Amino acid sequence: MRAHSLPHLQRATTPRGQSGFSLIEALVAMVVLSLGLLGLASLQINSLKFNQTAHLRTQAATQAYRMLDTMRASRSAVSTGDFDVALAAAKTGSSLAATEVTAWKAALSNQLPSGLGSICRTATADPTGGCTGAGNFVIITVQWNEANAVKAARAAQQFQLVSQVAP
Q1: Phi-psi region of 164 (alpha: psi -120 to 50; beta: other; left: phi over 0)
Q2: Does any domain span residue 1?
Q3: Which residues contact 108 (CB under 8 A, 6 or more apart)?
């Protein structure tokens, strides 16, 4: 039997100094990788911020609808204006409406940063017309501030719910 010999493999020759990565190429790769990681970190920070904003808006909407459900259960108190309260005002008295509004405002203050709320009646469903103090429509406004620091100059956010509450 004849033994097959492997053909002679020749090693490719490279010019002197061209084997492997140079220090400059390694540094450029590190810079590119660093920029990519910084971009990912920025994306994560924005994601957390938007998630917090969505959470606060959900809390505001939930509290507004909670108050609307309370008002629908006591329509006679709505028609007499027992639930009406200004944004920064406190509700006084021992009626059921006053107790519910006080508890609602406390929940807003606890669940939202600088959380405030107002309830007013109006004759039309247009909230830009303002409150007239009479009518079958109610405007429930929840206001909060999304700023993380007291010195941050951000405008207060508002959620308005307009609904008809017929007597």
Answers
A1: beta
A2: no
A3: 63, 115, 116, 117, 142, 144
